[in-house]
Amino acid sequence: MGLTIHYKAKLKSMEVLPEMVDELADICTSLEWEYHRIDDLIELAPDSNIPEQRSSDGTSVALKGIIINPPQGESIMLTFVPSGYSMNFITLRAGKQYEGLPDLIYWQHTKTQYAPIETHISIVQLLRYLESKYFSELEVSDEGEYWDTNDEELLKSHFEVYRALITTVASALENDTPLPGMNGLGFRTKLETILKFRMKNRDN
Predict the structure, then answer these.
(1) What's the confidence (pLDDT) of residue 162?
(2) By the 8 A CB rule, do 78 and 67 touch?
(3) Where are the domains of the chain?
(4) What sign has the CA pseudo-torsion 128, 163, 165, 33?
(5) Of the segments 24-28, 64-68, 115-119, which one has the largest average pLDDT value?
């Protein structure tokens, strides 16, 4: 749970990647954001069916790019496989291409729920800039709707909704006192009952 930016990108070519990484490193230095350059061979799971160019022994795939760590936010994974598509090391190591969802492996996810709203806006602006200069394809699904609208007030309202939900869940779990009629119920049902009870009483 938490406000997240989902994105899938493809480079114009792998030749532009070193320039992009250098530029992003300079931007991170200016913003005082941490970053890590990536140039690794990632070992695949034995049953992996990810359709990427592999090492000569067929066990690994090259992953190159940069991982950016904005303050209080999750990492921005701008790492790419030989086809030029975005991918991360977790997907490479354990993931599979799923029937009916072949592009799922290329989607990256950056949660901004616990970061300042400015960080969310900065990530969207950064993706737009990279699209204009380095990407041939970019799809973004922004749960804050800022990517589609540029509406900061709408983005703020999404942050507030998610914060209220997280606060309700945390409070329900921390103060897990028995409520009438819940004996023998499973955790999911119990949690749903707690949340409905608390939301109802919060509004009264």
Answers:
(1) 65
(2) yes
(3) 4-150, 154-202
(4) positive
(5) 64-68
Find all residues with CB under 8 Å of 51, minimum gap 6, and list them.
97
Question: What local confidence, expressed as pLDDT, does residue 51 receive?
Answer: 82
Q: Is 127 exposed, middle or buried (0-12, 13-18, 19+ CB in 10 A)?
A: buried
Amino acid at 185: L
Q: How far apart are CA 49 and CA 46, in angstroms?
A: 9
* Cβ(92)–Cβ(81) below 8 Å: yes
pLDDT in tens, 127-151: 999 999 999 999 999 999 999 999 9
Distance (Å, rounded) from C-alpha 79 to C-alpha 90?
A: 11
3-state secondary structure of 36: strand
pLDDT tens per residue, range 61-111: 999 999 999 988 899 999 999 999 999 998 888 777 776 777 889 999 999
Whole-structure pTM value: 0.78
Distance CA 163, CA 1 (A): 10
| Cα 183 to Cα 112: distance, rounded to the nearest angstrom | 37
Residue 202 reports pLDDT greater than 90: no
Q: What is the DSSP secondary-structure string of 112-181?
A: -TTS-HHHHHHHHHHHHHHHHHTEEEEEEEETTSHHHH--HHHHHHHHHHHHHHHHHHHHHHHT----TT
